[in-house]
Amino acid sequence: RAKNDSRGSFSFFEPGMDARAQARRKIETELRTALRNEVLRPYYQPLVELSSGRISGCEALVRWPHPDRGMISPAEFIPVAEDTGLINAIGAQVLRQACLDASRWPGDIRVAVNLSPLQFRVGNLMATVMDALKYAGLPPHRLEIEITETLLLEKSSQVIATLHALRALGVRISMDDFGTGYSSLSYLRSFPFDKIKIDQSFVRDLCNNREAQAIVRAIISLGMGLGVTITAEGVETEAELSWLRAEGCHEAQGFLFSAARPNEEIKGLLDLQQSAVPDQQFAAARVA
Ligand code: C2E
Ligand code: MG
Ligand code: MG
Ligand code: MG
């Protein structure tokens, strides 16, 4: 609705903004229904340990099967969930389901779950995590929490305390999309974490871009110095994989191995790996 005819250039843009706001409102309404009906569910993408070729864990990536629009990407609805506060309920639901699914996977395979910075602000995150672990009967060391650098920007003592409490419980902390945030390295000293995930934008350029190579090398050496695991995200080619392995990267994740898949498929893959002899494990991980 046009506010004022005297601000002609503003009203020119308003119909478009209205349409966008309406689309968002529609997503919000549908998201509430999806949450209530528990139709959101995690898919899982394997994390492959490069020294052994073994799948050491899987990342839970939430999916929204929409009645008219097919599968909606989290990139589209997580921001809406964050704006509306729905992220807390969605996050708790994904966490519970991910812990339950992982509790039925063989061996010591871990599950990694993404948490929004907003989930750290509500104050009951520890209870949510402990509830999920207890509900699923999953040992805490099999859960990994993925956070992004934006969380650390706040330099909040409550956030630091929560991260310490999670770790004291045995939960591992991963720094997701590393290198894309406001990279002040000083937070690496005050925040406890166990893993750095190199953002896929660096990996994508790896094979023909010296700058990307220099950055990835620096992140690997930083991670090694800090004694944390280094994982490369978005690995799509053999060339990227061999470059990363030669540089000492510990773990990789990407379409080269597998995209995120429904739990039934992932569980089948993990059971297969469990029964395979060691030198067939890498082949089992590579199924795309
Ligand atoms: P992320 O945590 O960095 O997850 C990695 C994203 O990269 C996933 O996208 C994954 O499907 C995609 N990916 C993996 N391998 C490749 C590859 O080889 N090439 C390319 N081009 N892409 C690859 P997805 O599933 O669309 O998720 C996007 C983002 O949404 C995630 O980025 C994460 O930040 C967020 N997200 C997903 N699930 C959740 C959730 O349960 N809670 C929260 N708070 N955020 C979530
Ligand atoms: Mg992630
Ligand atoms: Mg990432
Ligand atoms: Mg991301």
From TrEMBL:
Full-sequence range covered: 455 to 742 of 742
Lineage of the organism: Bacteria, Pseudomonadati, Pseudomonadota, Alphaproteobacteria, Hyphomicrobiales
Name of protein: Diguanylate cyclase/phosphodiesterase
The EAL domain, residue ranges: 24-274
Annotated source species: Rhodopseudomonas pseudopalustris
Highest taxon in the source lineage: Bacteria
